[in-house]
Amino acid sequence: MEPELTASQGTKTEITEQACPDPAKQCFEYQLDFLKLEYGAINEAIGRIDETTAKIKNWALITWAGSIAIALREQRLTDFLWMTAVPPVLFFFVDGWWRRIQRTLSFGFRKSPNSLTAPN
């Protein structure tokens, strides 16, 4: 017994296509959904890395400004003024480390779209 069709349901062919989709199309849709999830996760990770970098930069600048102020306020510490360069240098290394991680994530994303066209 065939289901009764109404004008809003469409033709028999459309109903059959909806009931039995093409396996290749299903596979492509699954890969596309997975790629969208991966893209979102990578963007979130890059966003977190950018926030962490901004926090570290703020910390380094505040520490640097504070250490310069203390070194200039105390006459006996002016000889150690060169040591105020330590926080910005530490920031440089930490920022480089975070950027390296970010590039790794970006490289992974640039490589992942190839998985849609790669042979199984």
Q: Can you walk through the features of this model?
A:
The chain is mainly α and 120 residues long. It has helices at residues 12-19, 23-73, 86-111, 114-117. The two termini are 40 Å apart. The model has no long low-confidence stretch (mean pLDDT 75).
Describe how the helices and strands are arranged.
Layout (H helix, E strand, L loop, with lengths): L11 H8 L3 H51 L12 H26 L2 H4 L3
What's this entry about, in short?
The chain has 120 residues and is mostly helical. It has four helices and no strands.
Count, helices:
4
Beginning-to-end CA distance, first to last residue? 40 Å
Q: So what's the overall shape?
A: rod-shaped
Largest sheet: none
Q: Point out poorly predicted stretches.
A: none
Order of helices and strands: HHHH
The chain-level mean pLDDT equals 75
Percent helix among the residues? over 70%
Rg (C-alpha, Å): 29 Å
Number of E-type strands = 0
Structural class: mainly alpha
Strand content: under 5%
Which structural traits does this protein have?
120 residues; 4 helices; rod-shaped
